[in-house]
Specification:
alpha+beta; BAH_sf; transcription cis-regulatory region binding; 10-stranded mixed beta sheet; ARID/SWI1_ChromRemod; SH3 type barrels
């Protein structure tokens, strides 16, 4: 694979007219190969002047007629980086989602990806269940499977996980996760209830509280979202491809 090339990872997960849908893609970040898959959260900067925000990858597809590789993501900003700013109602671990999803060519999305998130101080930092505890009776595999079924409509990610493992990546490397507000509340409540308990006891409780979302990550930054806003300048970003969203919507609705 060439350093600047993009390629799909894993088998296609859907076919609809001229569109082929995929679960993951591989690219290079600072000279190193990296894989992003559906449901992943990662830091991005939409333009050099914009603040760092969080993207959640929600859809990947190729338009066969134009050979365009496309993505749809949901963006989350800190309250202070929105037009209304932060107020007393906002929680310290809260982010606000852009009301519209952003359609971006993969070649542009990878330019947005931000590897230096050292200045991102927000989010609940907490220890995770030790992976040794998850190794018993296939619990880790069960949690990954459960996570796939809840976050990604039951898609089989076995081939993607293998590719990530071959690159030295792992689900445990996730460094940021955005939960719904109810999930976040359950998470905080569970943390309080299980303080000072052995990790072997925590595994199933974390799984029940979070559906396996955070249990397999190493010290992730946990945030939550309960509101949306209209981004005033995002539509002016030359990387946004609204025309592809219109084509996809029009084609799917006509079938």
């Amino acid at each position: 694979m060439e350093p600047n090339s993009l390629q799909w990872v894993g088998s296609p997960c859907g076919l609809h007219g001229p569109y082929i849908f995929y679960k993951a893609f591989q690219f290079h970040l600072e000279g190193k190969p990296r894989i992003l898959s559906l449901g992943d959260f990662f830091f991005v900067r939409c333009t050099p002047k914009d603040p760092i925000c969080i993207a959640e990858l929600q859809l990947l597809w190729e338009e066969r007629t134009s050979r365009q590789l496309l993505s749809s993501s949901k963006l989350y900003f800190l309250p202070e980086d929105t037009p209304q700013g932060r107020n007393s109602d906002h929680g310290e671990d809260e982010v606000i989602a852009v009301s519209e999803k952003v359609i971006v060519k993969l070649e542009d999305l990878v330019k947005w990806v931000h590897s230096d998130f050292s200045k991102w101080r927000c989010g609940l930092h907490t220890g995770s269940v030790k992976t040794a505890a998850l190794g018993r009776n296939g619990q880790k595999e069960a949690l990954l499977k459960y996570r796939q079924s809840t976050l990604n409509s039951g898609l089989n990610f076995k081939d993607v996980l293998k590719e990530k493992a071959d690159l030295g990546e792992d689900e445990e490397e996730t460094n940021v996760i955005v939960l719904s507000y109810p999930q976040y509340c359950r998470y905080r409540s569970m943390l309080k209830r299980i303080q000072d308990k052995p990790s072997s006891i925590l595994t199933d409780q974390f799984a029940l509280a979070l559906g396996g979302i955070a249990v397999v990550s190493k010290n992730p930054q946990i945030l939550y979202c309960r509101d949306t806003f209209d981004h005033p300048t995002l539509i002016e970003n030359e990387s946004i491809c609204d025309e592809f969203e219109e084509r996809l919507t029009s084609h799917c609705s006509s079938k």
